[in-house]
Structures are given as C-alpha cells and as structure tokens.
C-alpha cells in the first residue's frame, strides 16, 4: 500500500474513533444577515460578508432609506444600492433573501395606511428578483417562507411582513405622566386594544400553517425586534397581545428549534425572551450595515451586546452529530468577531432531546 493511501486510512480511522468529528459542510448551513443599509453609503460590509461564504444573505429591512411618496424616487434609491460594487459582489457569491421594514416600505414608522404600499411592494419584489411564480405576487403584503435542504434535514426561513397590515402605533401624548424609566423621550405606548394588530389576520393564519409544517430548524425574520424589553420605540412590545399570540402559536403547533432574527435599531444584540408556555425565544438583532446609533436602549432581556459599530450577523446551523445547535455571531466592519453565542437545539425544544 502506498504512503498516501496509508495516510488516508489513518485519518479515516481517527475520525471514526473520535465519534465527535467536526460536521461536514453537508451537515451545516450558514445564514448571514443584517439591516439598515443606506444607499448613499459605499457599504463595504458586504465585502466582509462574502469572506465568510454564507449560503444565504438575509436582508431584514431598511434595506434602503426610501422615505418618499414618489415611487420613481424609491425605485432610483434601490438602483443606487444595486449598482454598488459591494452589492454586486454579494449578489455574485450568495443567494439573497429579503423582507422589509419602514424605510424601504416607504415611510418612517409607517403601517397599513401608507398609501403606496402596493407600488412599493412591486418595486421591492422586482429589485430582489422574486420569481414571477412566487406566492408573494398572489397575496397582499410580502410575507413568505423558503425551505433549504441540508442532507436529510430541512431549514424553514419565515419572512414576516410587519408593515402592510400593522395598525397605527400609539404615541405618548402626556409626557409628564409617562413611565419614568429611561433618560430619553418615549415615542410609543403599548397597545391595550386587543384588536390592534401587527401582522393582520391573513398573515397570522398563514403563519400558523407554516409553523405546522415539518422542519428541523426554523428562522423567523422580523423587521422589528421581538425579544426585547419594552423601551418606547418600535418593537413587538408595542403590541404585547401579538407577542403573546406568537408564543401561544409556537406552543400550539409545537414548532421546535425556532429563533428570531431582527433589525431596525442600528446596533447588534441578542435577547432571550422567556415565557412559561414556550421554550426561550432568542432574538438575534443585526442592524447596522451602514448605520450607527449613539446609544443602546435598556433591555433586560439582552444577553449579548450591544455592538455599536457597523456589522452583520452570522448564524451557523449544525443539524447533525452529537450536538446539533445554532451558533450566532456578530462580525464588525474591521473583520473582528464581536459576539459568539451557541444555542443547543435541546434548549429550544418542547421535548427533551
């Protein structure tokens, strides 16, 4: 037997003996993700993303800063993003998925009353080259799900639409009687009206159907944060009954191995939302492809971060072996890993595994 053959046999024996070798590429899947990308910025962060060779890049909203009633202006801003060498590099090297938030929807903090939402949707779908046979063209809004097979396992990526159906937010009108919790102005109060909605009934019905489908891991993409403590800005916490509804829906469908990805706030963090009727719901926020913010709001659910520099998120899903898990990372514009947090599958499951 030749020396090269002997060496190959030696390594094969070592791998079999260890019983806990590193997963092969076929057993893992990597999602890069981020939000808040101003079309006037060169966006070199996309070149950093490409270095990690993700299977998918997921835009979580504020993919441009449109903020207009003029659809020609909105379309031109998308074109400015699409023409950037860094975006072209990203598009060349990985699949791109997207949902939206307010600024690319068309107006800051806008909901269902934004008058150009149908035209904005068409521009969005055309820019991200949504296949013409996609169900996104068949219903109101842009909610959607995609599936990726990794060996014998299935990953479900659910793209929520938190704009098209969302009722108006409630503003704090009496600043003298607002909760004296923070050092900044509170914009919005939580809804007490149980009929006020974030997702709308059609999207809720669709989501229940999606969570009832078999999947080995589920990614829930939301433009605004789900898992944070209430802070007065836009978030699921402004619709606490909708937060509760999602938890109860996960419980009802027994949808295991679900984590949330979110954007919006111009910094990165990981929040852990705990509820007695569900396993912990981790919300991994990556928001700052080009944007930054001067402070991070208080968040009692924060377990990692905040990261205030431009950054992107990276989620590596390991589906087989003795320790299936999700590893969440935050990488900054200088190529530094700022956060690494591993979530074992048994921690996000209704059953002991």
Provide structural commentary.
By secondary structure, the protein is an alpha/beta fold. The chain has a single domain, classed as Purple Acid Phosphatase, chain A, domain 2. 24% of the residues lie in helices and 25% in strands. It is built from 8 helices and 15 strands. The strands form 3 sheets. A 7-stranded mixed sheet has the order 4-5-8-9-11-10-12. The chain has a 6-stranded mixed sheet with strand order 3-2-1-13-14-15, covered by helices on one side. Strands 6-7 form a two-stranded antiparallel ribbon. Helix 2 packs parallel to helix 4 (85-93) and helix 3 packs parallel to helix 6.
Q: What is the name of the CATH superfamily?
A: Alkaline phosphatase D (PhoD)
Number of strand elements: 15
How do the strands line up in the largest sheet?
A: 4-5-8-9-11-10-12
CATH topology: Purple Acid Phosphatase, chain A, domain 2
Average pLDDT level: 91
> What series of H and E elements makes up the topology?
HEHEHHEHHEEEEHEHEEEEEEE
Number of helices: 8
CATH architecture descriptor:
4-Layer Sandwich
Percent of residues in beta strands? Answer: 25-35%
As an assembly, this protein is single chain
Distance between the termini: 44 Å
User: Gyration radius, to the nearest Å?
Assistant: 21 Å
- Provide the helix percentage: 10-25%
CATH class: Alpha Beta
> What is the global morphology?
globular
How many domains? The number is 1
Q: What structural class is derived from the secondary structure elements?
A: alpha/beta
Biggest sheet architecture: 7 strands, mixed
